[in-house]
Amino acid sequence: MIVSFDLVILVFLIITAAISLRVRDLLSAAMILGVYSFLICLLWAEMGAVDVAFTEAAVGAGVSTVFMIATIYHTRRRSSD
Amino acid sequence: MEFIQNSVLPHFNYWVYVILMMIGLYAMITKKNLVKKLIGMTIFQTAIILFYVSIGVKTGSTIPILEHHAEEHGEAVTDTGGHHEEAPGEHESHDSIHAVDPDHFANPLPHVLMLTAIVVGVSTLGVALAISQSIYKDFGTLEEHEILEKIKQGGPGIDV
Amino acid sequence: MKWLGLIATAFTGILLLSATPYFPSFGDPNSPANAGVNGGVSVSQYYITETYTDTKVPNIVTAVLADYRGYDTMFETVVIFAAGVAIFAILRSFGGTTIPSHPTAIDTSVEGDHQRIIIGMTCKLIIPVIQLFALYVVAHGHHSPGGGFQGGVILGASFILMALAKELDTALARFSEKRYLALACVGIFIYSGFGLLCVALERNFLDYGILHRLMPATDEIMARSHSMLGVEVGVAFTVTAIMFAIYANLSSKGRLEQGF
What we know:
heterotrimer; A: 81 residues; mainly alpha; B: 160 residues; Helix Hairpins; 2 domains; 5 helices; 56% helix
C-alpha cells in the first residue's frame, strides 16, 4: 500500500465521477465511466485486492461499458441534464 | 491542520467513499435521464465496494495468495517441507500451521464478498439497461419528466 | 426536486462523515475486521492461517469463494442466471419486425472495406488468444488471481468482441441462443451437482471432502481442491453464457438479428 498513489487515484476518482455525470453526451459519459472503472481497478490492485481488481478490469472497464454503449445506440444519445 | 492530520488522513478512504456515495445518490435522485441514473447507481455501487475493500487493508501486508513453494521468506512460508516430500495423502506437519502470520496477508473476506458483488452488479446493470430499452420502445424517450407526462396523458403501454 | 435531493444527500453524507472518525484508521492490522474483537480469532484470520492445510489451495480468495462460502457463491451464480432469464423475458421478441429501425451502418466504400479487413484480421488473431487466456484464468484460479467469475467474463467478452467486430450473426452462428441458454443451465447443474453428490455420499451440501471416494489417488484435502476447480468451471459456464446473452439481447433489441 502506497499512500501517495492512493491519494492521487482517489482524487481522480472523484473528478471522473463528477465529469461522467456532468457530460450531456451519454456516449462520452459511458466512456468516462469506463475510465472511472479502470482507475478504481488500479486502486484495488494497489490495496492488495488483486482478485477484485481483475474482476473490475474485466467487468467494469470492459463489459459494462459495452452494455451501456449498446443501449445508447438503440436509444437517444443526448441527455437533458 | 491538526484536524486534517488526525481525522482526515487516516480515514481518507472512508471520506472518499462517502463523497462518491453522495455523488451517486444525488445523481440517482435528481438526474432526469435514466442512463444517467444508472451511471449514478454504478458509482454508488463502487463506493460501497471501495468501503468494504478499504476495511480489509493492512499496512505492510501482501496480496492474499500464499507462497507454497518458497523456502527463503521466513514467516510467509507455509509449505516448510518443500514439494519433493509431497505425496498424496500426506498432511502438513503441525507446526507449519503456525508459520502463516495473518498480519502478512490482506483480509481475504471482503475481497470474496465484493468479487461476487461486482459480477452480480454487471448482470443487474444489464437488466436495468434492458428495462430502459423497453421503456424507450414504449415511450420513445428516456427522460423521466417526459415519460411521466406521457403516462398522465395515458400513453402507450399503460394498462391502468 | 433538485433541492430536495441535495438536502437528502447532504443529510446522508453528514451522517456518514460524522461516523468516519470512529472507524479504525486505514490499514490498521489490529482493527476488529482484521484481528477480531477482544483477542478472539476473527474468521478472516482463520481463513489465512488454515486455508492451505485445509484445502491445499494457495489463493485464499478462491478457497473461501468456492469452499468455505460455497453456498453463497452458488446462489450468486443463480442470481446471474436469473438476470439472464429476466433479460430474456423483458427484451426478447420473436419474429414480427424484420425491418431494422436503424439503417445498417455498414460503410460500403473502399475505406470502409479496408477498415473491415483490418478489424476482422485483428480479431481473428486476437480472439483465440483471449479464449485461451480465459481458460487459463479459470483453471489456474487456485494459484493466481482469477477463477470462475473472471474467466467467464473474459470468455464472454471474446464472443462479444466477435459480435462487435463482425456481425452479431457471426457470433450467434457459433454460440446460438439454444447453446448459450443450455450452457447457463449446465453451469448451475454442475455447481449444484457437486453439492448433491456430497449429500449422496452422506455429507453436508457442498462439503467436498467426501468426494475423494470418487476421485482416484486423492485424499480428502486434494478432493476439496479438485472439487473447487469443478465448481469454478460451472460458474464460468454460467457467467460466459449470461454475459453474451445480455449483450446479444441489448444490442439487437431482443431480436437477435443484425444489431450494429
